[in-house]
Design a protein that fits this description.
2 domains, single chain, about 300 residues, mainly alpha
Length: about 300
């Protein structure tokens, strides 16, 4: 093979030249894009396909002793000190997941590293952002519900009692729930999670009152304004506090045991919040129909 360093030779390739190769200016945009993608991949849990994050169903794996807090997925009994595969002494359930080995490419070690790199100040910043985003999302949902129920009647009653509360309560905690599920390490204190949810409810209640009192009912009475700023604000904050309690449990378990959060465990508390909100809306609707409108 000829070693002449002409344009057709492999020695003309940039990585084989003796002198330093200058990058093509047209590739600068691609370089920035790739650098951005690499940075995102580092923060993303891209180890989800690790065998250490799969159910412990393969034969021949040693029954190691669990040396850290590790909850039974059925009853939350702490299995620490028991062998992997031992049935839960509380409910008899056989836990199919085990802690991953130190240094393994697993969700546990990914989360441990993210916790070490994330400051408490970041958690407060994320909580404030979730407060604003969650409140604004819930306002959008509320405006859609108001438009749909403007015709009144029993169709409006169903929207106010069933769909309206379900959408509003879900949207108020939606941003915080996404953080808990995808980036649980961003919340470092339970107060940050409460701010992200209950704060969103307060923002929503304030914006909703401004819309109600200045657009839908500009000629309102003082009593109606007082009712909106006391009872309605307390309703939204209280219901979201109930729903928030359902998120705290899986978030704490994720950080304490370094395992994937199961936010579906918070659904019962979210349903409770929706029921409380729906009961309030239903009572107000019936009061306005059979007694007097609140204006």
């Amino acid at each position: 093979m000829s070693t002449n360093k002409d344009d057709q030779s492999l020695y003309h390739e940039p990585h084989l030249r003796r002198e330093r190769a200058e990058p093509d200016p047209s590739e600068e945009k691609a370089r920035r894009t790739l650098a951005h993608e690499v940075a995102k991949m580092r923060q993303r849990d891209h180890r989800g396909e690790s065998v250490y994050d799969e159910p412990d169903i393969l034969p021949g794996r040693p029954n190691e002793v669990i040396e850290q807090d590790w909850s039974c997925s059925a009853c939350d009994y702490n299995l620490r000190g028991l062998e992997v595969g031992h049935r839960c002494p509380e409910c008899g359930h056989r836990e199919l997941y085990r802690p991953s080995p130190p240094g393994a490419a697993s969700y546990q070690n990914w989360l441990r590293q993210r916790l070490a790199e994330t400051s408490e100040r970041t958690g407060w910043a994320v909580a404030v952002a979730a407060t604003l985003v969650g409140g604004l999302w819930a306002v959008v949902a509320s405006l859609i519900g108001i438009h749909q129920s403007a015709a009144g009647g029993w169709g409006g009653f169903v929207l106010m009692v069933v769909f309206g509360p379900a959408v509003e309560e879900t949207m108020k905690i939606s941003t915080a729930a996404c953080v808990v599920e995808l980036r649980p390490y961003l919340f470092r204190r339970v107060e940050q999670l409460r701010l992200a949810t209950i704060g969103a409810a307060a923002v929503f209640a304030a914006l909703e009152n401004v819309i109600y009192l200045n657009i839908y009912h500009p000629n309102h009475t003082f009593e109606f304004a007082l009712f909106r700023w006391t009872v309605c604000v307390a309703l939204h904050v209280g219901c979201t506090a109930v729903a928030c309690h359902g998120l705290i449990r899986p978030w704490r378990q994720a950080l304490n045991e370094l395992r994937r959060p199961k936010i579906t465990r918070g659904v019962p508390m979210l349903v409770m919040a929706i029921l409380l909100h729906g009961a309030y809306n239903g009572s107000v609707f019936l009061y306005e129909v059979f007694v007097a409108p609140l204006r």
